[in-house]
Structure formats: structure tokens, C-alpha cells
Amino acid sequence: MAEGGSDAGSAPPTPSMSSLPLAALNVRVRRRLSLFLNLRAHVAADWTALAEEMGFEYLEIRRLETHADPTGSLLDDWQGRPGASVGRLLELLGKLGRDDLLMELGPSIGAVGWWWLSLMITCKARNVTSRLSLHSASLQVPIRSD
């Protein structure tokens, strides 16, 4: 597939996806990625091509080859590196021409994004609430009298 253009089937990740940490990908999505990428195929990019795009070096890739689920191990290792995010993963899959993965997993990844966003909003709200109670602050909301 062309690197420069985007196909109609593969929409670019939304801005919220680019900041979504890789830890937000649930086990189901990771397993599905592994089903697609663990297979060595000459017609489509596999996990080794993805690892190279992620910046892994030859010896790191060779070490990952010894694992039963190299894609899962790759995602676990990459998750701790700077710039690792769900949005970046989607960009790399698109760059590698894996539109099949983007089409297959897009809805699941999008649902994960919404779940993670709602979780973060809930955590931030709890944090603000606990800070207010720690400082004995009161929240004053003006009452409208229309």
C-alpha cells in the first residue's frame, strides 16, 4: 500500500488516540493482534517488521523470537518506551500496509479509547474531589433564577 496517502478504509487516529497509552489495549485486542502478526507471511508485514518500525534493534528482535507470543512481548516491551501509544501503533500498522488489521480491530480499539478516556475523566474527578476535601475547600455553584 502507498505510504504517503491514506485509503478510504483506514481512517487516521483521532487526536485522543495519539495520547492513549498502549496499556489501554485490553487482552482481547492484544491477542487478536498476535493472531495476525505472529504468522510469518511473505505477502504481509509481520511482527518483525513492526518491531523495526518501533525502533527495536536486531538483537532485541532475535530475543523476542524466542517467546511463544512475540507480538505480545513486543507490545509489552514497547509500552515502556517514549512515544508508545495506541495512535502511534495504528500509524505504524498503516505505514506497513496492514489495513486488514486496522479494519478488523478498529472498532475494538476505538471502544478501548472511549473506555480509557472515561476512566481517566473519572480518576481526575476523584482526584479533584479528594483535593477539595483535603483543603476543606467548598465548591460554590451560582444558582440561576431565570
H and E order: HHHHHHH
Largest sheet: none
Give the low-pLDDT segments.
1-8
Characterize the overall form: elongated
What would you note in describing this structure?
With 146 residues, the chain is an all-alpha fold. It is 58% helix and 0% strand. The protein has 7 helices and no strands. It has helices at 15-18, 27-37, 47-53, 58-64, 70-78, 86-95, 99-134. Helix 6 (86-95) runs antiparallel to helix 7. It is elongated and about 70 Å long. Mean pLDDT is 79; it is low at 1-8.
Which key features would you list for this structure?
146 residues; disordered N terminus; 58% helix; mainly alpha; 7 helices
Summed up:
The chain is an all-alpha fold and 146 residues long.
Please outline the helices and strands.
Layout: H1 15-18, H2 27-37, H3 47-53, H4 58-64, H5 70-78, H6 86-95, H7 99-134
